[in-house]
Structure formats: C-alpha cells, structure tokens
Design goal:
CATH class of the largest domain: Alpha Beta
Number of strands: 14
CATH superfamily of the largest domain: SPOUT methyltransferase, trefoil knot domain
Shape: globular
Strand content: 15-25%
Helix content: 25-40%
Largest sheet: 8 strands, mixed
CATH architecture of the largest domain: 3-Layer(aba) Sandwich
Distance between the termini: 32 Å
CATH topology of the largest domain: Alpha/beta knot
Length: 365
Amino acid sequence: MPRGVRRLVGVESLTRILSLVADGVENPHNALTLLHAAKLFACPCLFRDTKGLASAWSGAALDAQPLPVLPDEISLDEWNPLVALENSPGARDIYGYRLPAGETPALVVGNERFGISARVLARAQQTVQIPMHSTGLNTINVAAAAGVALYYICRGGGSPTTARRDPGKRRPEVALIAPGDHFELGSSIRSAAAFGWSRLLLEDSNCVWFGVDRATRSEGRGAARRSRNSIRVIPAREGWSAGFSEVCVVTTTGPGVPLHRADLAGGPRQLLAIPDESDSVAAAQDWSRLGAVVKPVHLDLPGGTHPYHYRLIASIVLAEAARQVGRRPHERGPAASPEPIYQRALKLVDAAGGEPVSHEELRRF
C-alpha cells in the first residue's frame, strides 16, 4: 500500500494489504456498503471522487466518519498490481484467479452506470470479471460485486468454474429467508438473476417485498432491475415446510462446512437457504421442516459482519453456488429448470402465484 494511503487509512504495516478503490461511484448508499464490504475482508477502501460523491456523502449524513477520498497527489501507479473489476473482453474470471506478485495490490471497481473510467482501466495491470449467466445482465450491484471479488481474491481464487453439458440439472433451489430491508433484498434478487436463477423462494416474514407501500415497492424493485431474464419471486409463508432431500443453510456465525468446501450443486432436490442474520429469529429456525437432511454451511469473513448487509452475504453465496454448478460452453443464459419440487410434490404455492421481475419493469439502477 502506498505510504500516503497507509497514513490516510491509519495502516502503518508494510505487509501486503489489498486495498479496494472505488472509481467514480456516485451513490452514497453504495459508497457506505463498499466501505462495509471492504471491512468484511479487513481491507481499506478508498474513493476516487470524480462525480461529486463527497458532497452527496455529506448531504446524506449516512456515517459520522468522513469519506476516505484519495488525495490528488496519490498516483494510481503506486499500486502494484492494480486489478480492475470489469466485464470486458479479455478479462479473467474471478473464479480461480490468483493475485500476482506485488507489495501494494488494489482492486478497482467502477461507477454504477459506466464502470471504471478509461484512464483507470488503462493503468490496470490486469482485469477480472465475475461471470454472468444472462445475455443482457453483465453487472450486479457495485458493492455486491466488490464483496464477491474480494472473497475470491482474499482466499486465493479457489477453483475455476467448469463447462458442463447440462448445468441446469446441478442448480439447487434458493430460498431467501426473512430479509429485513427491501433494498438489500432487491440487490440479492438481482444477483440471483445474474448468476442464472430463473426463480427463488422468498419467506417475507418482515414484509419488505409483498404488499408494501408504493415507495418501498419502487425502491426494492429498483435494486433488482436490469435483468433481461425475468426472475420469479415465489412467496413462502412463514413456517412453511417442504420435502427437499437436502437443505444447506449458510450463515456467518454458526458452525458448518466452509462455504468453498460445501456441495452446493445438488440439483433441484437441494435447497440453498440464506437467512438474514440481522434477524435473530430468522437465523435460529428449525430447518428440519424443509428437508430430510440439514447441512449447516459457514461463510468465514475475516473482518466480521458488522455492519451487516444481506446483499453482500447472499451475493457471495450465490456466486459460489454458480461456480460449482458450472455453465455451458459459450452459455447464453440459464437453461430451463424443471418444475420446483415444492410446487410439484407439496403444492405449497399457487402455480399462478409469485411475482415476475422483468427487465421492462426494472430498468434502471
């Protein structure tokens, strides 16, 4: 880390510390979540303010701390390697990526709409991307993307994804359990669509998605948009039961198999349950009601999870499941999924129920 940056963020160690650099981010809420995403992995987060973010940050009064803006005298050349997170031709997949040698590494993420500026992209030694499974959706929320990339870079990349003839047969069902914030949920739904899910179950016990007021509805759907592949959000009543062969419950606080070692590609008879751990009731449920075998899975985050963001946790979990599921060679979107087990066998939901989230309705973010 450059010496001036070490002073800026209060880090004096000369050990190799990965920095997160946000280039041209505009939304102060995204900026705050980027700070928290970096904290999950004990990384400093700094901002190249080219879009008036500092002024918006002060006006929004989201945090008592000042925004850590890069001084003009700090050159991007001081980072080595400088790695850009951008879905562009020639970018390497984040799955299996190993950070090259260099004492001052940094990961750069870009503006919510336009990505990383051409100037910064030209300075980057390498470019990495998070593989998308959609023909029209080539990004997820910038903070969620940063969390996913930091997860793989900080643990050495993991294994690359595999090309498979029929990855749809390996894709598990997903249940989002008791999310507490409509924006966090919307971003999580967007990630699910980007990583290839065409439907998911939602236990909306905190009433943040279904039956909400107009403003909440607009903000939540806004966070989920930009997908050309619609995703169906299927309501699951509180305390519902199901007959899955296996239920993988992913938490950051409970025991379990480490996320990267868990088998998350068990097909439609496997349920991947992601509870919102900011809700203690959601995190301490009787999961045996959902399947014959319950397997706890642990997501280890070296910096802890406070403040907690559901979109960060859910996006990391969904990215790892997508990596394990694999994809078709030159895949152009998720394959058709069989009828859900909970609908086919248990008739828990009305076949006409649920809510499609289409790209026409959810166009901008």
